Amino acid sequence: MNQAAHAKAPLASGAREAMEALNVEAAHLNIWLRTQANAPAQRPWFKETGLGTAGAMAAGRVAAAQMKAKAHHWKWREISPYLDKIAGIASSADVPPIEFADRQQFLLTNPGLGGRLQIAAALRCAVSIYNPGDVAPAHLHSPNASRTILSEHGGYTNVEGERCPAARGDVILTPNGTWHDHGNDGAAPVTWIDTLDWPVLEFLDLIWLDEDMPGATGNHRMQAASVPEGYSQALYSRGGLIPTFVRHARGISHSTSPYIHYRGADVRAALDGLRGEAGDPYEGVPLAMVNPANGGPLFPTIGYGAQMIRAGEETLHKRETASTVFVVMQGRGQTEVAGETFDWQENDIFVVPNFLWRRHLNTSSKDAVLYTMSDAPLVERIGQYRAQGRTKAGEVVQLA
Fold it and tell me: Pairing between strand 333-337 and 340-344?
């Protein structure tokens, strides 16, 4: 039997009209009779081999209600002035600093998601600024979160009693259910990127926040340091060896990394040490930041990494079922995404949604370093992770 024989016959126009009339009649009951819902929301992504393919939607009720993230590039020179404007408002005499400290940020909104406060289907990103002396009181929440530090001096974050003084390129984790406060004890404003799995928790109706930490002191409601600075690094920094006398979780979180503070200097040193390796034709020289207790991702929902695109290097095209946010920590270059070209430089942020072909080009004479945040761990956990690449000859090959 040929494939055409398996195709479903379209619903006759008369039957469709009758069904739609019933839908009008039954609308007050909050039900909907299937008419065009059998069409998938998207054709099989892996059969669309063109580089400009952006995952076309089918017709019908399913597609009409579906929104798809778009590839987008936020240029630092365009968005950073708004941080200064926010900081100016925050430093005005009639705005109490403690009331404004955790609101000095803007969220990155994907133009394909209809105004939703998310950068991709499962990720939220915000850019924050803290003036000298600003403090966000101790709190905990259900989403997993992280700070990626952009300024040379990045203030501090205190996580479950471990104080983490930060510098550019550091990634500090605040796993779900961990008490944390953060602020700026330096002389200049600090900036960082907040990344959260908020959209996933919001979809599941699991968002909650607690700001009443037992034992928090002072007007700023800060937690006291209960372990030395660098505590998690002291426990877990020896590769292949982990202590067995501690609980490998922070707060009430589950399956999250107990290593809280990933330092930019260590990331760069590791990349520099691998610079002479062949690397990956699709990623340059990539590193994964992993949970040292089990070798898995830092969060069950978000994976973090860094990659070096060496001077003059061009990667091959790749696409995957996960969405990735890129932050330019060093250098200049280009990323081609589904027929678009993003010319990026330091501190720029861009997102590559799932299914879209992309490749990186270092157009300068110096190495470039990109940080990544991806929903790949979540996609893997539900059994949906796949990846394809294109060889130099243009052949599509299965990578995962």
Answer: antiparallel
**DSSP structure class, residue 281:** T
pTM listed for this prediction: 0.91
**Residue in the block written with tokens 């929440």:** 141
Question: CB of 307 within 8 A of CB of 285?
Answer: yes
Amino acid letter, 261 = H
Q: How confident is the model at residue 142 (pLDDT cuts 50, 70, 90)?
A: very high
What would the pLDDT profile of 206-250 be if each residue is shown by its tens digit?
999 998 888 777 766 788 888 999 999 999 888 889 999 988 888
DSSP one-letter string for 213-265 = -TT-BTTTTBPPP-S-TTHHHHHH-STT---SSS-S--TT-SS--S--EE-HH
Calculate Rg over the CA atoms of the chain: 23
Burial class (CB in 10 A: 0-12, 13-18, 19+), 9: exposed
Residues in the chain: 400
Residue-level pLDDT at 211: 87
Q: Is residue 197 classed as helix, strand or coil in its secondary structure?
A: coil
Give all domains of the chain, ordered by start, each with its CATH number.
Answer: 72-398 (2.60.120.10)
Which residue has tokens 């941080």? 83
| Neighbouring C-alpha atoms within 13 Å toward the C-beta of 36 | 13
Question: Is 289 strand, coil or helix?
Answer: strand
